[in-house]
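Standup, Tuesday
Yesterday: got the pipeline producing C-alpha cells again.
Today: sanity-check two examples.
Blockers: none.

Example 1:
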Amino acid sequence: MGATKIIFADNVEKYRKVILEELLPYGIVSIGEAANGADLLRLLILLKPDVVLLDLEMPVMDGNEALNEIMIKFPGTKVIIVSMHYEQLLVEDYIFRGAKGYIPKDEIAGDIGLLARAIKKVKEGEIFVHHLPLEKQEGSIKYSFKQKQITPLICQGYTNEQISEELSIGVRGVEKHRSKLYSKVGGKAIDFYRYAFSKGLHFLGRARRRT
C-alpha cells in the first residue's frame, strides 16, 4: 500500500513543517501546503490528496469559508479540521457540513499518533472526532436545538428581527432563546461574545433548520 497523501492548510509555516515531518514515519506525506483557504483551493485544482488538514484561523480565507468552497467545488475531498478551538457545537457543525474529522491541536501536541490514526481512518472512509475528556470541557455550555440554530446568527451580528425572518420563528421566541444563552455565560451580551470568540464560535456556519 502506498503512502497517504495530504495537503495541510495552516497559516503558521513552522507548525506545518513540524507536524508534516512527524507524520513521515507513519507513511503520511505532504503533496502541498497552504497558508490560507484561497491557496488551498488553488492546490485542489491541481492535486488530489487523500486527506486535507484544515485549520480554522487563517487570513485571506479562513477554514470556515474554505470548507464551504471545498464542499461545493471539490465535494469528494476528505477534510479533517485541526484547530486550537474546541466546543461540541463547533464539532457538530463541521461534521454536519461535510468535514470527516475534528481534532484539537492541543491533543496532537502530545500525541502525533492521534493525528496519524485520524488521517488513516478518514482516508478509509470513516469519520474521526477526538472528544475531549469532560475535565477539559469545563465551562462549555449546553444548547437546546433552537439555541444551536440562533448561535451562529448571533455571532454574525444578526438582530432578533433578522434571526426571526431567517429561521421563521417569532421575534419573542428569539428574544427568549437569546436571553437564555446570555444567562449561561454571565447574563450580558458582552459575556456571550467573549465566550463565543474564546471558543471559536465565530467560525460556525449558517444556522440550519431541523429536517
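Example 2:
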Amino acid sequence: MRNLAKPSFDARATFELCADNVDDENLRERLKSVTDDIVTADAVYADRGKQSTLFTIPESDNVGGKVTGAEMRLLYKSTFSRLNKPPRDIYDKIRGAAKDICPLCGHRDVGTLDHYLAQSRHPALAVTPLNLVPACTDCNKTKLAMQPNRAEDQTLHPYFDELGDDVWLVATVEKKEPLAVRFNAEPPNDWPDLKRRRLCKHFEVFKLAKLYSIQAGVELTQIRDRLHRRALIGGPAAVRESLEEDASSRKVVGPNSWQAAFYVALSESNWFCSEGFAKIATTVRLNQVTGS
C-alpha cells in the first residue's frame, strides 16, 4: 500500500458543483438542502480517519431524510464521474494523484476511484473527496461494498495510513516443479498490534499474495536464460551477485514492492542460486497467469 496526499478539494464546494449540474430541478433543490449534512459527514470522516475508526460511522440509506441513497449514487455517476461534466475535472485530478499506479496493490494501473466506505452504505460520502481513493479496476471490484465492523477489519487507507520504510513484504522460494515464489505480509514486531492486523487484512482482501505470485511466475521465465549464462561464467556466486544487484535496484524504487521481495528471496536462497534456477519452467502455466 502506498500513502497519498489527501485531496485538496473542499467537500462543500465539490458537492455544490455536482448539485448544480443536475438537470432535475426537484432533485437539485433537495440536494442543496442537505449540503450541511454532507459537510458534517466530511468532518466526521476526517476526524475518524485520523483515529483509524472509520468503521464506527453508521450506515444509512439516505441523506438528511431528503435524498435517497440511489439518488446520491446517481449524482456520482451522472455528474462527478461523467465525462464532459464540470465535476469530472475533480475526479480526474484525484485519480491522477496516484501517478498511474494503484496505491492499494502497488502494481496495476489506476483506472477508477474507489469509495473507501461504500456509497451504497454511506450515501453522504458519495462525492466526498476524502472517501475517494485512486484504484485499479481489479482492486475496486475485489473490495466492492465491503463494510468493516471492527477496527482490525479495515483495509489500509492511502490518505490516513503511513507504513514508512519498514519492510513487511516477504517472499519465499518453494522447492518444487514448476518452481514458485510465494508472498506473505509479515509486519515488524514493534508495530502496534492494530497496524499489524490491518496490514494483514489489506493483504488478504486485495488478494495480493495471489497477484504477486502470478507476476513472480512470469518474471522467473524472463530471467531464466540470464541466470543460466551467469552460472556458466561464475557458478552460484555469479548467480547470487546478479540477483543481489536486481534486489538492490528494486529496493530503491520501493522496499515493499513485490519485485524487491522477489529478488531478495531468490538471492538469499542457496538452493536457488546453486540449482533451483535450473528448474524454472520455460513457459508460464496457464493457471499461473490467470490465477485459476
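Quick observation on example 2: Residues 208-253 form the longest helix (46 residues). The chain has two domains: 11-149, 169-290.
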